[in-house]
Backbone:
């Protein structure tokens, strides 16, 4: 099993380049099958979730040509099936985006039910509610969800919860439906806006993305496009907290500062200095940080995908902090791992009560999911000793070159797959 081995204690210092947003890229890749003309997508992150979705698309006849590590050329004119059943598709949550894309274009789709991180029940009732409102029927059986419609007709859809996935999925299906669709209580995340902008670049007519009311006028068909994915808000936020927890000084480059406002605000409250530029921002943490309170909320609130990172950082801040997780019901499983490092955190319901300690101690750690895995690496960077983090396959779902980027900032971290390599690392770092 591949692991990261980390010798903590070094403040992170230097520049780091942020990749394209994984959660925008997943929706955009799926939506690209809705055009019969060639689509070029730039700034794709080279992470396993993306590569798995590409393989699943290829399994139904989509031609995907890699122009370079971060650019693909896609042609979906020869799709052979609207049933996405490959072994790949069960591995990722965003498989459900193929439903909205194929339903919109071919009026039918069948996809194996999603996999993904186990941070909660992850229902898809709002996705199916939207498809049904557009005139499709939906069936779930044998671990598959299938949907088909003689006609897709626009409708007024009010989402019962703010959901990124359902907002994107319904937007895709409605973009090629007949007439007008309104999605109320829509998610406003930057990646929802990016998918809407991508669809519009293929000829869709979508207005209001980024607000809680999205208005879509269906069009006949899409043309080709060339589109560049926005920077990843969560990768950027993770490196911001890496700078904070190691008392470092890091310039985070290729970002959109507006997307990071809630994260910057919290870090400033905790005692960091943050300097914003057009496409970058600098995080400096020169002293022990202090406590704060935070509740995860849909955008523009503090992102749930940053919850493990802020809890981990607050574990060594002065004072008592409370972090409330309002989006998912099982997103504190990593706290047991922090406890092994000497953290004093009590999880009560959907809140973590954190009594800051002066330092954490190294340990062997297990990543329970993508963002918690990244947070445990941050915890290890803040100790004096040598830690290991296993199940890095989770981390590599959403972070491109994570160890390499951290090493370029002065971290002592390597990916290993044997005890012998760990021994070599220990000898090397002394
Ligand atoms: C997306 O998941 C992201 N994943 C998640 O990021 C992110 O945590 C989440 O949005 C919230 O921002 C991708 O984009 C691939 P939701 P998604 O639908 O779309 C409930 C990461 O680390 N809900 O916005 O699955 C749901 O239970 C991942 O990159 C319903 O009740 O999340 C949750 O409580 C982890 N019915 C809330 O809505 C539905 O039909 C938000 O879920 C759909 C969702």
Residues:
């Amino acid at each position: 099993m591949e692991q990261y081995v980390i010798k903590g204690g070094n403040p992170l210092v230097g520049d780091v380049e942020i990749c394209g947003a994984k959660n925008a890229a997943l929706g955009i890749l799926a939506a690209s099958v809705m055009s019969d003309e060639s689509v070029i997508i730039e700034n794709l992150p080279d992470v396993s979730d993306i590569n798995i979705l590409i393989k699943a698309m290829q399994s139904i006849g989509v031609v995907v040509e890699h122009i370079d590590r971060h650019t693909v050329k896609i042609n979906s004119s020869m799709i052979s099936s609207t049933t996405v059943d490959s072994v790949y598709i069960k591995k990722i949550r965003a498989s459900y985006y193929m439903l909205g894309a194929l339903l919109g274009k071919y009026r039918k789709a069948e996809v194996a039910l999603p996999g993904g991180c186990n941070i909660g029940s992850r229902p898809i009732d709002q996705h199916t509610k939207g498809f049904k409102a557009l005139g499709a029927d939906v069936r779930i059986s044998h671990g598959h969800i299938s949907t088909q419609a003689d006609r897709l007709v626009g409708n007024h859809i009010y989402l019962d919860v703010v959901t990124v996935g359902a907002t994107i999925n319904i937007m895709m299906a409605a973009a090629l439906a007949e007439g007008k669709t309104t999605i109320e209580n829509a998610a406003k995340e930057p990646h929802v806006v990016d998918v809407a902008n991508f669809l519009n670049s293929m000829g869709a007519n979508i207005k209001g993305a980024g607000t809680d009311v999205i208005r879509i006028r269906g069009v006949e068909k899409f043309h080709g496009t060339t589109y560049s994915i926005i920077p990843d808000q969560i990768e950027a936020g993770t490196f911001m907290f890496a700078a904070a927890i190691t008392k470092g000084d890091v310039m985070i480059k290729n970002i959109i500062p507006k997307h990071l406002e809630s994260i910057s605000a919290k870090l400033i409250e905790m005692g960091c200095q943050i300097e914003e530029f057009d496409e970058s921002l600098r995080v400096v943490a020169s002293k022990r940080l202090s406590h704060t309170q935070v509740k995860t909320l849909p955008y523009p609130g503090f992102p749930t995908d940053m919850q493990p990172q802020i809890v981990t950082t607050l574990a060594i801040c002065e004072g008592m902090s409370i972090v409330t997780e309002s989006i998912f019901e099982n997103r504190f499983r990593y706290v047991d791992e922090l406890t092994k490092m000497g953290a004093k955190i009590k999880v009560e319901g959907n809140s973590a009560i954190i009594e800051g300690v002066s330092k954490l101690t190294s340990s062997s750690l297990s990543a329970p999911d993508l963002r918690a895995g990244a947070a445990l690496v941050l915890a290890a960077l803040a100790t004096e000793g040598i830690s290991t983090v296993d199940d890095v396959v989770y981390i590599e779902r959403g972070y491109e070159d994570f160890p390499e980027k951290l090493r370029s900032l002065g971290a002592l971290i390597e990916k290993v797959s044997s005890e012998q390599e760990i021994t070599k690392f220990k000898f090397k770092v002394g």
